[in-house]
């Protein structure tokens, strides 16, 4: 790291004569600034950022340097989520950096608050929002997402205290929730992770078995759903007798002879009416495709 003194520093960008008297030091690699130096330099850069005009090169330099100097705050906050995978940890740092940028843009020097104390809640909040919005395999209400976290903590606490998995009643007492609410939180927790249908379950002599091999079969009846939806309005357009014949034949499954007896007509007449009605429905179905 190279930090030039005020006398040696080269002015970055354009500024007024008053601004030039407090020119920012040029830092070659702001990410290498030690935390101790970063605290001191952050205050200086924030003071200058407050008076610089947005869009100027010096304003951009001050803002970018503040971000790079304080990325260690993001890394510190990300350690709380170290149980995540490597790929997800990279996402955590990126999301946390968004929180850092928001803190830089919103910091108020007049409050005389340490920037670190101000920025950490923004960083952690952004990371938690990321998990809340993207980590769940299925969407569940926020109250259940929060209940899942509380449930995990309560379960771990009671397991350590009791030396065994806690019961629903014990969890409800510790969490100050009803047993039904605890069951709901436990059920919702199942929606946090999802397994791929191609996930390998175990190896056998014939090779590897996938989860999809053990859960259900293709339901070919589902292909009829679209046909049923198209058929419903066509049946509604039939006259009362034609609809009744269709109902008796295909819902009550009566024979043509039984239908004729029910309606007081011959079986041959029933056959002609049924054939004509089915032809009408068939033509209507074909015209909708």
Automatic annotation (TrEMBL):
SUPFAM superfamilies: Sigma2 domain of RNA polymerase sigma factors (SSF88946), Sigma3 and sigma4 domains of RNA polymerase sigma factors (SSF88659)
Pfam families documented for this protein: Sigma70_r2, Sigma70_r3, Sigma70_r4
Keywords: DNA-binding, Sigma factor, Transcription, Transcription regulation
Single GO MF descriptor: DNA binding
CDD domains in UniProt: Sigma70_r4 (cd06171)
InterPro entries assigned: RNA_pol_sigma-70_dom, RNA_pol_sigma-B/F/G, RNA_pol_sigma70, RNA_pol_sigma70_r2, RNA_pol_sigma70_r3, RNA_pol_sigma70_r4, RNA_pol_sigma_r2, RNA_pol_sigma_r3/r4-like
Domain RNA polymerase sigma-70: 91-104
Segments for region (Disordered): 1-24
Protein name, per record: SigB/SigF/SigG family RNA polymerase sigma factor
Source organism: Streptomyces doudnae
């Amino acid at each position: 790291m190279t930090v030039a003194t005020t006398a040696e520093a080269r002015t970055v960008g354009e500024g007024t004569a008053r601004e030039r008297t407090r020119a920012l030091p040029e830092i070659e690699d702001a990410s290498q600034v030690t935390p101790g130096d970063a605290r001191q330099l952050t205050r200086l850069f924030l003071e200058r950022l407050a008076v610089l005009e947005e869009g100027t090169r010096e304003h951009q330099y001050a803002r970018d340097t503040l971000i790079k100097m304080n990325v260690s705050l993001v890394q510190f906050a990300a350690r709380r989520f170290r149980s995540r995978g490597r790929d997800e940890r990279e996402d955590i740092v990126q999301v946390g950096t968004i929180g850092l940028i928001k803190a830089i843009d919103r910091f108020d020097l007049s409050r005389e608050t340490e920037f670190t104390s101000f920025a950490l809640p923004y960083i952690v909040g952004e990371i938690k929002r990321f998990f809340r919005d993207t980590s769940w395999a299925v969407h569940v209400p926020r109250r259940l997402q929060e209940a899942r976290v509380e449930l995990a903590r309560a379960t771990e606490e009671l397991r350590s205290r009791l030396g065994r998995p806690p019961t629903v009643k014990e969890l409800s007492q510790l969490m100050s929730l009803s047993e039904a609410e605890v069951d709901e939180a436990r059920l919702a927790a199942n929606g946090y992770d999802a397994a791929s249908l191609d996930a390998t379950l175990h190896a056998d002599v014939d090779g590897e078995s996938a989860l999809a091999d053990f859960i259900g079969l293709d339901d070919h009846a589902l292909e009829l759903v679209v046909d049923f939806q198209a058929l419903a309005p066509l049946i509604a357009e039939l006259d009362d007798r034609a609809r009744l014949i269709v109902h008796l034949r295909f819902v009550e499954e009566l024979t043509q002879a039984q239908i004729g007896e029910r309606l007081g007509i011959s079986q041959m007449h029933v056959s002609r009416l049924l054939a004509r009605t089915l032809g009408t429905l068939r033509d209507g179905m074909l015209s909708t495709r």
